[in-house]
Amino acid sequence: MATRGADGAAPIPVWLLVRGLSRSTAHWGELPQALQAALRRQGQPEARVLGLDLPGNGRLWRERSPATIGAMTESLRTQWQDQQRALRATLADRPLALHLLTLSMGGMVGLDWARRHPGELSRLVLVNSSLSGLAPLHWRMRPSAWPTLLRLLALPVGDRACERALHALTSREPASRREATVAAWTALRQAERVSRPNVLRQLVAAARYRVDGPKALAGLGLPVQVICSAGDALVDPRCSQRLAAALGTRPVCHPQAGHDLALDAPDWLIEQVTALAD
C-alpha cells in the first residue's frame, strides 16, 4: 500500500481496470474516460486510469493464456511494473497508489494479487465475481447459461452471432442500444482473435482457483468493495454476497443490470467506486 513520499506528497491514485473471460480493455467502452472525468471533478486531476489485458485477450490475443489464475496475476503484475516505470518518469517519482477495478474473472486475479503480494494494492473493487470454496458451481455459472457457452465453444458460429449471444447472456442493455454494442463487439472480435483454446484455458483457470473457506480471505489489509448486479444471468449475485461476507464487508447491488455492469450502468458503477475514492 502506497505511503506519502519523502516530501510529504500524497500518492497519486492509479486505477487499473481488469476484465474477465476472453474480454479486453476495449470492452470497458467509455467507462475509463468517464471514470477519469469523475476523479477530476472530485479533485484528483493527477489520477490515472489504465487498462491491461490478461494473456490471450485483447492486445495480447496472440499469447497463450495461462491455465492458472496465479500465472495471470504474475503477467498482469509484470505489465503493471512496466507501466509504473513509465509513469514515474513523468510524475517526478511521486508515490503511486494502485487501485484495481475488476470484473468477473478479473476479480479472481485481483484477489490473488492481494494475497500473493501484500501491500502492493491500495484498493480492490470486485464486480460480479465469484470464488470456488465460497459458492457452488451452479451459482458461479448459472446452468441456464451452459447451453449457450457450450454451443459457442463447440460449434462454428459467426462473429456477429457469437457476440449477439454473449450480449444476451451478459447484458440487460435496452434494445435501442443493443445492435450498436453488438456491432462494436463484433469489430473487436475480428481485430482481437481470442482463440478457443485460450478461452478453454481461462475457463480451467477460473474453475481451478479456489479458497479454503472464508478464513482464507481474512486480513487482506486493504479496502475491498464488492459490487454485483441483481439481473446477472451468468453469475448468481449470491456469489458476491458470500464473497463480501468472507471479506467482512457488504455488497452493493444494482437492481436491474446484467453481468456486464460497466456496460449496463456505467454512471452508477462510477458513483459507487468514487464514493470511497481517496
From TrEMBL:
Gene3D superfamilies: alpha/beta hydrolase. Keywords: Hydrolase. This is Alpha/beta hydrolase. Coiled coil: none annotated. Residues 16-271 form the AB hydrolase-1 domain. It holds the Pfam family Abhydrolase_6. InterPro entries: AB_hydrolase, AB_hydrolase_1, AB_hydrolase_fold. GO terms for molecular function: hydrolase activity. It comes from Leptothrix discophora. SUPFAM superfamilies: alpha/beta-Hydrolases.
